[in-house]
Design brief:
globular, 2 helices, 55 residues, alpha+beta, 15% strand, 2 strands
Length: 55
């Protein structure tokens, strides 16, 4: 998470995202009216992480 924190802060703003690490899927939540799911997926992929949107 420390690797992603600076990237997610730039993408969504500080305190606008969090991980549910106690969940087996380690869910990332981003609270932003402007950040699109595909944008977050691409940012995580560029940093070596897999991500998909939950519906």
């Amino acid at each position: 998470m420390s690797k992603l924190a600076p990237v997610l802060n730039i993408l969504a703003g500080s305190n606008k995202w969090n991980f549910a690490l106690d969940d087996c899927d380690r869910i990332l939540r981003i609270i932003s009216p402007t950040v699109k799911a595909q944008e977050a997926i691409q940012v995580l992929a560029k940093n070596g992480f897999n991500c998909e949107e939950l519906e």
